[in-house]
Design a protein that fits this description.
Helix content is 28%, strand content 27%. The protein has 165 residues and is of the alpha+beta class. It has a single domain, classed as Heat Shock Protein 90, CATH 3.30.565. It has a six-stranded antiparallel β-sheet with strand order 1-2-3-4-6-5, covered by helices on one side. α2 (63-82) runs antiparallel to α3 (133-141). The longest helix has 20 residues, at 63-82. The protein is globular, with a radius of gyration of 17 Å. 30% of the residues are buried.
């Protein structure tokens, strides 16, 4: 990804860095990252890579990493196809959090709530068309998922329970 495509990146500080020996508590540490990118064709690939890198750093290679990468790819693709994030000047933001045996991934886009079956461009989607399969994919490889809207933002999210939790 070129510098012109990168808007900002935040990495979480090591949550255990300042603890003295013996100060470790039973509470699981939370690790997270937030990353915004230009909404273009390379964004989906970049988001997949960010999710994989983050989870392999937190959890190590496992089936949950593959599932999270696939589901994040669907969320990012939907953001490009169905919101202003996929238009010139559009932006989307990836949020990843790992906490107590669960990972939560969210993609925020520049979408507004539309009536069912109507895309961001105002066009009515046919029920037998090429739309709607992404939600089925997300539901099949995640533990929980959902979405919500604010005045100018749409956020789609999922959670996956990590092995051993």
């Amino acid at each position: 990804m070129t510098e012109s495509q990168r808007l900002r990146e935040y990495a979480a500080a090591d949550p255990l860095r300042d603890l003295e020996a013996g100060e470790f508590t039973e509470e699981a540490a939370t690790d997270h990252t937030v990353w915004s990118c230009v909404g273009n064709l390379t964004a989906v690939r970049s988001i997949r890579a960010r999710v994989r890198d983050f989870l392999e750093g937190v959890q190590g290679p496992c089936e949950a990493v593959d599932d999270a990468e696939l589901a994040a790819s669907e969320l990012a693709t939907n953001a490009l196809l169905h919101s202003r994030s996929g238009q010139v000047g559009g932006v989307m933001t990836l949020f990843i959090r790992s906490d107590r045996g669960c990972v939560r991934v969210a993609v925020a886009d520049q979408g507004e709530k539309q009536p069912d079956g109507v895309g961001a461009d105002g066009v009515l989607r046919e029920s037998d068309g090429d739309y709607g399969r992404g939600k089925l994919i997300i539901e099949s490889c995640t533990s929980r998922s959902g979405e919500y809207w604010t005045d100018s933002t749409h956020v789609a999210w999922f959670e996956i329970d990590l092995p051993g939790s």
